[in-house]
Design goal:
2 helices; globular; 126 residues; 40% strand; eight-stranded mixed sheet
Length: 126
C-alpha cells in the first residue's frame, strides 16, 4: 500500500502565506512556493507517494470570513495524479480534485486562493 493518507488529513493555512499538509500521523510538510489551491482542487506535496484514484476526506483549516480565527471545514477529493516532484526535493507532487464543495465553501476557497496567489493556471484565466 503506497498511501498512508487517513481521514485525519489536514491542510493548514497559516495567517501568512505558509501552508502545511499533514497526512495521518505525519509531522507535516511545509508546502513550497509552487503549492496550488482553488475550488477545483489542490496540488500539494507529500513525503510519501499517494495512490491515484484514492478518495480522501480532507480537513481544511481556513481563515474565517472576518479573519478573527480559523475554522476547520471538511471536503472530499480524489487523487488525480501523483509523481515525484521535480523541484529538487524528495517530495511527491499530488493533485487532488475536489468532488463535493458547496458554493459557499468554493467562494471562500476562491477568495483565499486569489488573495494568497495559490490559484491554478486554469482558474487564473477566469
Amino acid at each position: 500500500m503506497i498511501s498512508e493518507i487517513k481521514p485525519e488529513d489536514l491542510i493548514e493555512f497559516a495567517p501568512d502565506k505558509d501552508v502545511w499538509v499533514y497526512c495521518g500521523d505525519d509531522h507535516g510538510v511545509e508546502q513550497p512556493e509552487s503549492f496550488q489551491f482553488c475550488p477545483l482542487g489542490v496540488q500539494l506535496y507529500t513525503e510519501k507517494p499517494v495512490e491515484e484514484f484514492l478518495l480522501l476526506e480532507l480537513t481544511l483549516t481556513l481563515p474565517s470570513d472576518n479573519g478573527a480565527k480559523e475554522e476547520q471545514v471538511q471536503c472530499t477529493g480524489v487523487v488525480a495524479q501523483c509523481c515525484a516532484a521535480t523541484n529538487g526535493s524528495n517530495l511527491y507532487r499530488v493533485w487532488v480534485k475536489f468532488i463535493d464543495l458547496n458554493e459557499s465553501l468554493a467562494d471562500r476557497i476562491r477568495a483565499l486562493a486569489t488573495s494568497r496567489k495559490f490559484t491554478c493556471p486554469f482558474c487564473e484565466n477566469f
